[in-house]
Amino acid sequence: MSDRVDLWWxxxxxxxTEVILCKLPLRSxxxxxxxxxxxxxxxxxxxxxxxxxxxxxxxxxxxxxLLGLGVGRTAFAYDPRDDAESWVSFNLPPDCxxxxxxxxxxxDSSRRLSLAPLLLVGDSSWTTSINTKTPPLASSLCNCNxxxxxxxxxxxxxxxxxxxxxxxxxDMNEEPxxxxxxxxxxxxxxxxxxxxxALPSLSLSEPRSSALVAGGRLFFVCDTSSCTVSAxxxxxxxxxxxxxxxxxxxxxxxxxxxGRGGHRLVLxxxxxxxxxxxxxxxxxxxxxxxxxxxxxxPEILASMMPxxxxxxxxxDGLLYVIADDRHRAYPACACELVAGDGQYDMPTSxxxxxxxxxxxxxxxxxxxxxxxxxxxxHNLPNMYKY
Length: 386
Fold this sequence. Notes:
Layout (H helix, E strand, L loop, with lengths): L2 H10 L1 H9 L3 H10 L1 H9 L2 E13 L12 E6 L8 E6 L3 E5 L2 E5 L4 E6 L7 H5 L3 E4 L10 E5 L4 E5 L4 E2 L2 E2 L8 E6 L5 E6 L12 E6 L4 E6 L4 E6 L4 E2 L3 E2 L6 E8 L6 E8 L3 E8 L6 E6 L2 H7 L5 E6 L2 E6 L8 E7 L10 E6 L5 H4 L4 E11 L8
Antiparallel strand pairs: 1-2, 1-27, 2-3, 4-5, 5-6, 6-7, 8-9, 9-12, 10-11, 12-13, 14-15, 15-16, 16-17, 16-18, 19-20, 20-21, 21-22, 23-24, 24-25, 25-26
Organism: Eleusine coracana subsp. coracana
GO molecular function, one term: ubiquitin-protein transferase activity
InterPro entries: F-box-like_dom_sf, F-box_dom, Kelch-typ_b-propeller
C-alpha cells in the first residue's frame, strides 16, 4: 500500500473508519479486501463488532456426516445491512446450540461449555488468550439447550437450565431452572459459581427466550407458553420473583428480546382475539409495565402461518420472526423498532420486512430448525468465501 493511501487512512482516524465500516454489508467488505490491497491492509488492522444483530439459522438433519455436510452444523446467516438480501452459508461449531454477543456456544457430552467467535476463521485470539472450554457444568441436567447469556467487557457467562436427554429424547422435567455463572478472571482461568435455582414457575421443560438489559446486570428469562418472566440479577446472584407478563388475555405464546442499547425489554407474541395476530410491546424493565407498539402486517402474517410454529429472536431493537415449517421453506421476517429523538427512548412504532427464502436445495435434507440472533465479531480477510 502506498504512503499516500496510508496517509489517507491516518487522516480519517480509526474512530471514523469504524463508524463507516459498520455501515457496510459484510459481503461487500470481503469482496473489497479480496481485490484491493488498501482495503485488505485496513481490514487486517480492524477487528470490529457489527452492532446490528444478524439472524442465525441452523438446520439439524438425522446425520450431517451421512449427508456430506461436514462435522459442524450447517447454518445460514442473514446480514440486515446487505442489500443483496441473501443468506450466507457456513458451518457452526459441533454441538452448537446458541449464540450471543458474537460468540457461538457449544455443549459436549461431558457438560463442558465451549466458546468460539461466530463467522471467524483462522484467528487464534480466543485460543491463545482464553481457555475456550469451561469446567464441566455442575448440573447433571444440562445436556441439552440451556439458556445462556454473555456479558460484554468482562467475560461472564450465565447458564440457566437445560434438559436431560434420555434415550435421545428430552426428559420432561419440572424442576426449577438451575443457574451457574462462569467468569474468566485475571489469572486467565474460568471461575464457576453455582447460584440459587429459579423459583418453580420457571421450569426446565418449557421453551424459553432470554434478554440482557441494564448493561448486562439483569438476565431476563421468559417461558414461552406460560408468559412467566423472571430476571437473574448478576450483582446479587439471585432471581427476582417470577411474574406473569401477559398484557392481553389472548396472548398464547410470548418471546422476550432486548431493546435498543439494552436499556429496555421487548415482548412479542401470538395473540388470539377476533383474528390471530403477532404483536409487539415495549416493556419497562424496572416496573414491567407494557406499551403496545404494533402488529405484524397482514400480508406478512399470511405467509408465516401456522402460528404454532413461530419463533421470535432478536436484540438491540431488531427482531426476527421465523416459522418452523419445512414445507414452506421456513419463512422469516424482520421487525425494526423505531424510537423517538433520543437514542434509547421508548420505541413508538415498528417497520416490518419479509426476508428472502432460505436456499431450497439444502432445506429438504433437514427436519428441525433452530435460530438465534447475535451481533458479529469478525476478522474479514480470514473469513469463509461467500
